[in-house]
Fold these 2 entries.
Entry 1:
Amino acid sequence: MPASRPELSLVPRPRKVSPRPGRFVLDAGTCVRALPGTEAAAELLRTLLGPATGLPLAPAADGRIVLALDPQLGGLGEEGYGLTVGPQALLLRAARPTGLLRGVQTIRQLLPPEALSGGARAASWELPCVEISDVPRYPWRGAMLDVARHFQPVSYLRRYVDLLAFHKLNTLHLHLTDDQGWRMPVDAFPRLTSVGSHRAESLSDGVPHSGAYTKQELRDLVGHAAARGVTVVPEIEMPGHVRAALAAYPELGNHPGRSLDVWTEWGVCDTVLGVHEQVFDFCRTVLEEVMDVFPSPYIHIGGEECPTTEWENSPAARDRAAAEGLAGPGALHGWFMGRIGSFLVERGRRPTGWAETGTELPLDFTVMTWRDPAHARAAARRGHRVVSAHHRATYLDYAQSTDPGEPPAQPGDPVGLHTVYGNEPAPEDWEAGEAELVLGTQAQLWTEYVRTQDRIEYLTYPRLCALADRAWSGSGGDWPGFVERLRHHTARLDALGVPYHPLTPRSLMTASAGTAPSPR
Ligand code: ACM
């Protein structure tokens, strides 16, 4: 969209935007007519716009803002919507309620940025007249936040979700457990949080770190996210990345008498779960409680970076491998994941895991491929559903530029905005059947190096805007057009109080200029 219409510089870019002459004025007398089935969207509109603009947006049968479900828009799927803003009326339509939620976010972006700030008060606010028809490319557009390495309170997670929804992302993947902390309360195993949520220090800083959620907090978060059309996918790591659990319950490990601390280091920890039946009872019990809190169809059980040394050195694990007819202790990993995966399938959920190669997990797993882009294709070829999470394009814990004075980040070359934007989850040369299995993509923020909310947002934005744009708007991309829209969009981020990385020349350098790794 040209700079002359900055208010139409939407992120993500809608499928079709047709500017129309005139402006729609919102004022104290503007009411909302919510037709049957649209109540949740009307509520969201009021929740998001009411406090920010100071306008009541009261319900009324003759309201000039009309929300309607329209089966004729079925071609726009679960999340598509149509928005017509005319001088006299604003009409938002979708085939499904979630589409209306996406349209509400577009209405917010059409308003002047000050209307987003919460502190602004004006007698009236104007939107440009426009006709929009919009539909996402991918059904999975997400962000993973690691709250295991550094805990964040639910009040912050609500804001995090609000910012995802603002960019039409629909998945918050919550990394709840790891070697360095266990944040999910489990009634049957209270020591997971009473012991496992505290660590003595991080990266030798001498500063203890703690934190755990209550189930009520997590349920409230799930509800808050659902009202914005965002699914919270919980992740409980197994059989590796479990040092915090083993600090709480050493009998679940391969050396039952051993006493372990919640890990204070960073990297891949050798300690993994044992393979005796008590461990499977534990995993099933934990996951029952997880499923009780999180209605998400997808339940993530990690699975990556699981050294098999302890199993190789354990007579009990070797015996178990032999008894199960496995080739050796190294095969216990796939067997373990398969057993837990089948349990989740029996419960009607979709097991999800990090793929090390794309081909090692049972086929009923939805896999997140992160090590190498080639793994995504290998997984799809094999028949897995795939979420593209390649670390050199979607890990936001790497710095995003070589600007001087950047805060500490995950060691490694920067992952620049252009690289995130250029990431193509299913490149054109893939076969159709492979590409169809790609559900979408998501960003990850591992937080060993990231403690504060400001740092989370500095690393996340504007790179998450780039990921959201490509995941929603689809193939090809238009880098110059995106940068131009983003320049206007930063005014919205300012109004929302997001301390994003500024758009410096270095941060906007393209991979072809040789400063950032190739997108693929
Ligand atoms: C990962 O980065 N451990 C998936």
Note: The chain has 17 helices and 18 strands.
Entry 2:
Amino acid sequence: MNIYNEILNLKDKKNALILAHYYQNKEIQDIADYVGDSYYLSRISKESKNKLIVFCGVDFMGESAKILSPTKKVLLANREATCPMANMLNINEILKLKEDYKDVAVVTYINSSLELKTISDVIVTSSNAETIIRKLPEKNIIFIPDRNLGSYLAEKISDKNFILLDGYCPIHEHIDINEVKSIKSKFNNIKIVCHPECNKKIRDLSEFIGSTSEIISYVNDLKKNEILVLTENGVNKSFTDKNYYHKLKKDIVCADMKKTTLEDVRDTLLFEKNEVEIDNDLVKKSRKPLIRMHELA
Ligand code: 13P
Ligand code: SF4
């Protein structure tokens, strides 16, 4: 039996749900029940009836699924898959900073550690952050950990005062601006599309900025345009017409997202290993801001 069939059989036998982020390897996206951006996957994991979930993504995604559905068994297909940005800030510096402001909310990107989530007023993803922040009554927004997504939102929501710290996604931060400029100068009508985790210089060169699912919809709505997509290369799988793409010399790859293999998915399902287990107190404290995200999004 080939590995696809092994996984499908195990999945049926155990009535499990396989979720995969758009940055996962192609074969993982093929085997998943649902593929999506962080918010969509969080919603599916919360609303699904399945008691067993295999998450193909990075650790904060599995943790968020477990916090939203504490009675479900959530397995992370590859235990080593983590998001470097999630652990860049320390909660004490945020608590201290919060003391300097009165009318303040701590808004935390879902790409964050559990500890950061426990001190947050609300969690956001790149596809719902603007909607949620506009609904908050507070004037001052401590936005953590991503300074790039934070500065993008600060530009859009001018009636709030954003306080940013120094977290960032190394994959989006290190896109070569000179190469992007050079491609833009060669192709007059090129549409440059990027994720808001990119820095301002890259965002300023882009026609469209959005979450992974928003990027995919935008690109698939474009007709026969020269296109340069500046986010992790896993999204390419969802583009319906692949004829008009430009690529950077070096592919944009999140090594952690690419760690998950079909063997990982099979073995995780078979042995029900890599269970996401979270201390009750942490679940209680981080659940509130995550539920609030789902209420406000
Ligand atoms: P999306 O929520 O847009 O899928 O982004 C997740 C992520 O990790 C981007 O680097
Ligand atoms: Fe984290 Fe960046 Fe990888 Fe997304 S692409 S999971 S933000 S390291």
Note: The longest strand covers residues 16-21.
